[in-house]
Write a structure and sequence with these properties.
Structural class: alpha+beta
Order of helices and strands: EHEHHH
Helix content: 25-40%
Number of helices: 4
Largest sheet: 2 strands, parallel
Low-confidence stretches: none
Amino acid sequence: MHPPETIVVEVPVEVPVEVIVEVPVEVPVHIPGEGGDVWVDSFDQPYTIDGIDIVWLIDKSGSMNQHSQAVVNGIEQMILSLPPAGWRLGITTMAWQNAANTQEFPLVPGDTVQDAWDAYNNTGNHGAEAGFDALYAYLVEFL
């Protein structure tokens, strides 16, 4: 008799391994009243006059057409609330293309609601909504 042969069989066995390593992680925390990023949009007015310059940028896109009367009513209410002197009110659209081509002189004390309607109607009907670009175009090209 011969001794039994030994057979070696390799069987892969998965062994769960858990590695615990501490990794520092920075977590930004906002503390109210403790600074933070501040973004400021500004412009330099080319010249100044005594008094206050007010500019209304009006959204005249299609969704706002139904609100034109309310807008002019707001302009009227504002005009009636302003002091009797020392201001002018420019009215333009939020579309920079129209703002740069505005020919309507700003409203001043003594102007009427009809003058406000005329200014509103002369702003054009371009539907763009450009905000600061429109204001910049209005101030640089018109005033």
